[in-house]
Amino acid sequence: MSSRPIALVTGATRGIGSAVAHALAPTHDLLLGGRDRARLDELAGELRSARPWPVDLTDFTALAATTTGIERLDVLVHSAGLAELGTIEETPAEVWRRTMEVNLVAVVELTRLLLPALRASHGHVVLLNSGSGLRANPNWGAYAASKFALRAFGDVLRAEEAEHGIRVTSVHPGRTATDMQRSVREQEGGEFDPGQYLRPESVAAAVVSAVTASRDAHVTEVVIRPGQAR
Ligand SMILES: NC(=O)c1ccc[n+]([C@@H]2O[C@H](COP(=O)([O-])OP(=O)(O)OC[C@H]3O[C@@H](n4cnc5c(N)ncnc54)[C@H](OP(=O)(O)O)[C@@H]3O)[C@@H](O)[C@H]2O)c1
């Protein structure tokens, strides 16, 4: 069995999660989370010591089953998420429910199920939050509410689990060039210009930096804004 640290990355099939998986692969054994099994297999083939971990995060029965047997976990990166835009007037209950379920409740439940494994290795939980977890703007009600709540969850988890040596980092990227951003721009009726946004690799580098910080440094919050065009 490998002595390398183990990381589970949700949302690894695409975007920021995929970039995080690539960035951690040289140093960590990986469990790759997502629903697209073909893409997970492909990614696992590209990366050293990576295994697919296919599950729909909103299926809490399946989640409990797939976490059984994970006894040690050094890093848990929550990157799975969704964004559906609309004013409060336009947004029906099912959108709020879906958003909260993926962006918040699934994160909470997966973390809860993996707490023994995280405690066993004084692990690190990384929450892919957003600028919308710091500021709530028109059209972003359900998404921002889920990310504000995610931030609260992270703060509580950090305080409660400090005695077990668990570290918790909330990462708040601005617009990042991924499928989610493409979909957001479509919903906004604007163009998708990847050059204007953060690269997923840049967000991944910030995640790696937080995770590899020495034990005396607990990176609790990272805010990343798009910089000047390259
Ligand atoms: N892109 C941005 O501009 C931006 C900015 C700030 C924060 N963020 C946050 O960063 C995170 C990653 O975003 P991204 O842009 O990389 O998103 P993305 O490209 O749309 O990818 C979303 C990922 O989430 C997974 N996923 C969604 N629903 C799932 C479910 N029910 N069960 C399992 N997996 C599920 C998808 O897996 P499958 O396709 O395999 O189902 C996919 O891998 C999100 O939490 C997002 O809110 C993004």
Structure description:
- Strand 4 (75-78), helix 4 (93-120) and strand 5 form a beta-alpha-beta unit.
- Helix content is 43%, strand content 15%.
- Strands 3-2-1-4-5-6-7 form a seven-stranded parallel β-sheet, with helices on both faces.
- The chain has seven helices and seven strands; from the N terminus they run E-H-E-H-E-H-E-H-E-H-E-H-H-E.
- The protein is globular and about 50 Å long.
- The mean pLDDT is 97.
- It has helices at 15-24, 37-46, 60-67, 93-120, 141-161, 179-188, 200-212, and strands at 6-9, 29-34, 50-54, 75-78, 124-128, 167-173, 221-224.
- The chain has one domain: NAD(P)-binding Rossmann-like Domain (Rossmann fold).
- Helix 1 (15-24) packs across helix 7 (200-212), helix 3 packs parallel to helix 4 (93-120) and helix 4 packs parallel to helix 5 (141-161).
- It is an alpha/beta fold and 230 residues long.
- It binds NADP nicotinamide-adenine-dinucleotide phosphate.
- One of its GO terms (cellular component) is membrane.
- This is Short chain dehydrogenase.
Question: Concise description?
Answer:
With 230 residues, this protein is an alpha/beta fold. It contains 7 helices and 7 strands. The protein has one domain (6-218): NAD(P)-binding Rossmann-like Domain (Rossmann fold).
| Main beta-sheet annotation | 7 strands, parallel
The 3D shape can be described as: globular
- In CATH, the architecture is 3-Layer(aba) Sandwich
Helical content, roughly? Answer: 40-55%
- Percent strand equals 15-25%
What is the terminal separation in angstroms?
43 Å
What oligomeric state do the depicted chains represent? single chain
Briefly note the CATH topology name: Rossmann fold
User: Taking Cα atoms only, what radius of gyration do you get, to the nearest Å?
Assistant: 17 Å
Instruction: Estimate nothing, just give the exact number of structural domains.
Output: 1
SS field, number of helical segments: 7
Family: Belongs to the short-chain dehydrogenases/reductases (SDR) family.
Keywords: Oxidoreductase
Protein name: Short chain dehydrogenase
InterPro entries: KR_dom (IPR057326), NAD(P)-bd_dom_sf (IPR036291), Sc_DH/Rdtase_CS (IPR020904), SDR_fam (IPR002347)
